[in-house]
Known about the structure:
By secondary structure, the protein is α/β, with parallel strands linked by helices.
Amino acid sequence: MSRRPRRELGHGADLLSNKHIPSDLSSMPLPGNAALLSRASRTRLGAVLALVIGLLAATAANAEILRVVTWPGYADRDLVQTFELKHRVRVEVSYVGTDDVLWDKLAARGGADFDVFAVNTAELQRYIDGGLAAPVDPARIPNTARQLPRFRDVGAIAGLVRDGKVYGIPYTWSAMGLIYDRQRFASPPDSIKVLWDTGFRGQVLAFNGSSHNFSLAAQALGLPAPFAIGETDMPAVIDKLLALRRNVLTFYTLPEESVALFREQRVAVMFANYGSQQVQQLREAGINIGYVMPREGAFAWLDCWAISAGARNRRLAEAWINHMLDHAASRALRERQGLANTTDEANAPAAADRIIWLQPVEDVHRRAALWDQILSGDRRVSGRAP
Length: 386
């Protein structure tokens, strides 16, 4: 699979483009008896056709726009086009590669730039706190009836409900395990600590995500609460991340980027932020890889569709969420992306007992600021042990 994140504007409008229409419509060949029409008649017919096409193009240009911000693989072109045609709207899709970028986009103008977005349950909390997410009424999304019982019971899923109101509809999920080159390991790596193994220096890939990496370092240190790092433990976690920075080849952002790096740079092991999605892409690229859940446990995300507080048309945003829970979208997640959806059991990761669901962290903004310092190579990171 080769799919690059992109900003897609009005897929349906392309069908009405006049770039393939001859400037002189009177010269167009006409089928059957129409070829016997006089030149004047053909000219009049051409004028009518031009008027109709112009009106259709104007309608497309003036159509209502649904603004979506999401992750690679969540809004494939054909799925978007189907929605556009059904609802007679245009869809603008913006893609993100990190939670930090997603936050920046939504927070820029109080959520006014987007109508609907995909976010994991742990991150969703700060959107609710910041007034950037609006409640969602599951009753207005009929396809929730297609979901597995554990995903329909939103009250049992941490982070979806606040003060009796639902703020997210589960869409897809994955564990974040370890992907390794089978030719480089006599036996599969069984610990997250392999990312720090200096025997693989320069052959390790990690994800460029501030919040996840602090939790990962805390886990590698054996701290009991990786999502709530205390002040006394923070210096050791920072030092652990500085050591990770020295050991990795680089920190990737997008799944396609990780596949290219893995193939071209002879990577030995990678922290799989996108989980089974990356596994499928690597195998489709012909790379002999394995995928394991580390003994410490694998963090797992549950991504949901949420409605922006600045949504222009709530009904249209709800229709989008409903569309993304239908059979075609659910199948696309499973077959194209290798991801688990919320409507069937296919692609659910093994070793479910090792899954650790992401939780809100102690201070997401501080983690982001510290991570920027670590990533830049700053030797005097705030809060680092002396």
